[in-house]
Amino acid sequence: MSGSSVQTIAILHPGAMGSALARQLQSPRRRLLCCLDGRSDETRHRAHEAGIVPVSLEKLAAESHIALSVVAPTAAYQIAEDLVAAGFSGLLIEANAIRPQRVHAIAEHLSTTGGKVIDACIMGLPPVSPRSDPTRIYLAGPDHLEEIAALFSESPTLQVTTLGTDIGRASKLKLAHSIVQKAAQALALLGHALVEKDGLSPYLASEAGKWPSPASRPERFPSVANRAWRWGDELRDVADELRQADLPPELAEAAASVFDALSGFKDSQSDGEDTYQALRRSPDVQRHVHR
Questions:
Q1: Scanning 180, 211, 275, 283, which has its CA 20 to 30 A from the CA of 107?
Q2: Helix (H, G, I), strand (E, B), or coil: what is residue 87?
């Protein structure tokens, strides 16, 4: 990517994840930069502890071969805009939880200065050595994919997987993981909030501990589809109970619509693809999609 003997990497920004990744990238062959304009004292401390050198945005853009963007999703495009405005023409590793369309927009914007984009997603906690469960990094894109995979693979705390040359594959995986993980957290919160005052939370926790994540076993979705016909009404009752308890019912109502869409599989066999297509065709689900 550069003929320079020292590779310069920008960390945008050194939050908990960014600074932890920076520690894994430390090497005598690398220089790590950041821009701390407007950043908190805590961020400044993390940057110092991780050995990241603070510079102006203009200097960062001019000298960095690679920029790693790990920020709040709402700030991702602004970070790219700021880099372009400062003249950055290197490789941006876009590792934020944003839609594939937004990654494509960032790539198009960055191309105006000659910059390239790697689509990335990060799963798990910030890397800390040693840890039995490594932080997982998924990468996709047509430019420098293997080089960036090798860069992260130097650390034993990072597990790297490449997903091909199409930008958007890593970001779509991240969004799918977000709904599986974050929506499950929201549902768990609602379930425990519903029964906490009745002293039933420990029993719910005990039962939930017996379940593997459904997302880890997609081969069981046809069986789910065969039984879904009876779950819509059940979840509408859940929604009514949540509403009566002054808790938001929308997640339960949306889940009821998902199972209603699969009710046609009551007396028939389905495969995974049939199940997914039924969800896409359902008028009830479409009302939620286009609301």
A1: 180
A2: coil
Query: For the ranges 33-42, 124-133, 215-224, 227-236, which has the lowest average pLDDT?
Result: 124-133
pTM of the shown model: 0.88
DSSP letter for each residue of 131-165: -SSPEEEEEE-SSSHHHHHHHHHTSTTEEEEE--S
CB 248, CB 190: distance < 8 Å: yes
> What is the domain range of residue 285?
173-289
Backbone angles phi, psi at 111, to 5 degrees: -65, -20
Inform me whether the pLDDT recorded for 89 exceeds 90: yes
Residues 27 and 135 in one domain: yes
Peptide bond into 13 cis (omega under 30): yes
Q: What is the per-residue pLDDT for 289?
A: 59
Q: Distance between CA atoms of 128 and 132, rounded to whole angstroms?
A: 10
* pLDDT tens digits for range 137-191: 999 999 999 999 999 999 999 999 999 999 999 999 999 999 999 999 999 999 9
**Within a domain: 1:** no
Cis-peptide, bond into residue 130, ω within 30° of zero? yes
Split into its structural domains, the chain has a count of: 2
Helices 231-244, 250-261: axis angle to 10 degrees equals 170
12 & 123 share domain: yes
Instruction: Count how many Cα atoms sit within 13 Å of the Cα of residue 165 in the half-sphere of its side chain.
Output: 3
Choose the final residue of a domain: 166, 192, 219. 166
The confidence band for 130, taking pLDDT boundaries of 50, 70 and 90, is confident
Does residue 282 register a pLDDT over 80?
no
- What is the domain-level CATH number for residue 49? 3.40.50.720
- Backbone phi, then psi, for 94, in 5-degree steps? -90, 100
Of 128, 149, 166, the one marking the end of a domain is 166
267 burial level (CB within 10 Å; 0-12, 13-18, 19+): exposed
